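Here is the promised in-class demo. Please do not try to memorize the tokens; focus on the logic of going from shape to residues.
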């Protein structure tokens, strides 16, 4: 349910300090000031203090930093760290990998080509992950398995190729993980949301 304030404005909407356009808060990144007068991205939206909002895209964050728009947004001089846009991308990546780890702990993730293929054919997969360095042949065969398996409700699993194998190793506690898949579940939905946030930011 969307919240409306006493002025009749949607509390879920915020204005980007770069474009000056209003968007749903889910499409923006909140930034707050540190006690030292710097700027930090509040990815979880839990940090205290007044926030300013930027469209969740690397180019917009870079523009906000280069044009000193954070100082304008906070209405006081702030120190913007060098490479802020890249730092935010790293934060989003870390958040996505953390969600992958949580999905594993929830027992929703399988690893390895054979287990991934079996989960796909069982029609219980919601997400299929390939490492960036995955061979085209393996990716193609699993894509064919998805096509062959179909889905009773027409909902096909999402397929993402955004992490390195070494990153998947750390998140999943495996070795040389190239293919993984996640079953339907709340932790998987949270993971997919984090991955899509990262993808939008990097495009």
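The designed amino acids, position by position:
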């Amino acid at each position: 349910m969307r919240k409306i304030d006493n002025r009749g404005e949607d509390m879920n909407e915020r204005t980007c300090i770069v474009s000056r356009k209003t968007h749903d808060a889910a499409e923006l990144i909140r930034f707050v000031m540190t006690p030292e007068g710097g700027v930090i991205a509040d990815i979880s939206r839990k940090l205290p203090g007044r926030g300013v909002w930027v469209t969740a895209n690397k180019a917009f964050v870079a523009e906000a930093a280069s044009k000193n728009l954070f100082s304008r947004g906070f209405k006081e001089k702030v120190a913007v760290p060098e490479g802020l846009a890249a730092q935010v991308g790293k934060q989003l990546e870390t958040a996505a990998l953390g969600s992958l780890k949580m999905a594993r702990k929830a027992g929703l993730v399988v690893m390895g080509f054979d287990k991934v293929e079996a989960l796909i054919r069982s029609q219980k997969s919601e997400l299929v992950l390939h490492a960036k360095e995955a061979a085209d042949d393996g990716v193609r065969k699993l894509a064919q398995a998805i096509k062959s398996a179909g889905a009773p409700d027409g909902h096909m699993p999402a397929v993402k190729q955004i992490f390195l194998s070494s990153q998947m190793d750390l998140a999943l506690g495996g070795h040389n993980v190239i293919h993984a898949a996640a079953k339907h579940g709340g932790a998987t939905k949270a993971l997919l949301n984090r991955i899509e946030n990262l993808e939008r930011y990097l495009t």
